[in-house]
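Hi R.,

Here's the chain you asked about this morning:
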Amino acid sequence: MTSRPSSPPEARAGPLLLLGLLGVCYAVAAIGGLASADAGGTYQSLDRPPWAPPASLFGPVWTILYGTVAVAAWLYLRRPAAPLRPAMVWWAVQLGLNLAWTPLFFAADQYGLAFADICLLLLA
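And the predicted structure, written out as tokens:
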């Protein structure tokens, strides 16, 4: 019995996987968007420093950010000797922490828990 050679990582991490990763990341972004329906009012009510960005920048910046999160995972998965499990577990943990922050901060007004979430993101 002969074994078939495994496909190269480039073949395993093709465009369909990239689309799937983008779908996951943008689903997280959409859930955050639903949780931040009143984010403009909350953001305006915060005591912000003069250098704080305008609220209108957050949508475009986070759209690009979530896209780069997906592309980063896809590029990692294309590496020939990439240890998949630890890296993708940490990727998922960070994505989950990002998912939790917006509802904690904007929908639930749980600023302490949102701060703890950011601290965990820094550690992760």
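DSSP finds six helices and no strands in the chain.

Let me know if you need anything else.
M.
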